[in-house]
Amino acid sequence: MRKRLVLVISIIFSMLSLTIPPAHAAEIDNSNIYLVKAGDNLPEIANKYSISIEELKAANGLQSDELIAGQKLWVPILYEVRAGDTLVDISSAFHASVETIKAVNGLSSEQLYTGQLLKITPKRMNIQGQHILMTKEEFKDWLFNTQVKREIRLIQQHHTWLPSYKHFNGSNHFQLLIGMENHHKKTMGWKNIAQNITTFPDGKVAVSRPLNIIPEGTIGPKANSVGIAIEHVGNFDIGHDVMTKEQQAAIIYINALLCIKFGLTPSIDTITYHHWWHMKTKERVLDAAASYNVKSCPGTGFFGGNSTASAKNYFYPLISDKIEEIVESMQ
């Protein structure tokens, strides 16, 4: 399994340069992906494609005006309809929505004709401030379009403990994120919300702290310097919240995506639990520490427990299987 997984990851980087459309849309040879070059800036790109800077940022989940060479941006295009095209196919291929295509082009129905010209505008992502809320599939597209200019070798697993499931009502994702951001800045004295990524009980995923900025928090500088921190909303100590299937699926999926993106093979050296780090010394102690020197995070009930054995037996195999599934789907 390990050799096979290493082989799979070794070939993935060439795949990340591709935009993978659905089966029918593979016939479409237009592209609404702009590959950022050295020296590019948002005003010039926005002007080139007749889109506002705000719209360009909203379509691509940009948390700042900074661009990095190699980054990919969704941009508007003019598309000529081919025989057999449907609005569903076109919207899926070009990161748009049927409703937006109809509105922009003044369509009263979904009927199309060959040779028809359509302006395809990328759909806006769900953003409030720095917080971007996505489905796990949207996160995949966003992540593979993003360029990260720092070294990533470690994916941290945390649970929020507070807020827990009783604080989530199904629609207050941004309120919880802003609450955590305020707590981290005002109470903890950190510069920003500590975590880069947050998962929710409904399976939604949020990116808050930009991936190009190291996380903050009590896990310490060694784990943070080459890490991405993920907070899973909930208290997953035994006897408290029972993780939903939707959140389980999201956690496995985004860890697999991060492994693919950064060329990591799931192990105790690449996917770490907060519980394995000493609260005072900030050194990695794995299972060899008294309970009063470590936190239980990400929870004594997190995928079978918070020990290295539970991670190896119940968590890493799920991520490895998902990596192979995702890679196979991209071929």
Q: Which descriptor suits the 3D outline?
A: elongated
Mean pLDDT: 92
Which residue ranges are poorly predicted, with pLDDT under 50 across at least 5 consecutive positions?
11-29
Supply the helix-strand structural class: alpha/beta
Calculate Rg over CA atoms: 21 Å
Between the first and last Cα atoms, what is the distance in angstroms?
A: 19 Å
Identify the strand order in the major beta sheet.
Answer: 5-6-9-8-10-7-11
Give the proportion of residues in helices.
25-40%
- Total DSSP helices: 11
Name the quaternary structure.
single chain
| Count of strand segments | 11
How would you describe this structure to a colleague?
- With 331 residues, this protein is an alpha/beta fold.
- Helix content is 34%, strand content 13%.
- The strands form three sheets. The protein has a seven-stranded mixed β-sheet with strand order 5-6-9-8-10-7-11, sandwiched between helices. Strands 1-2 form a two-stranded antiparallel ribbon.
- Helix 7 packs parallel to helix 10 (245-262) and helix 10 packs across helix 11.
- Residues 11-29 have low confidence and may be disordered.
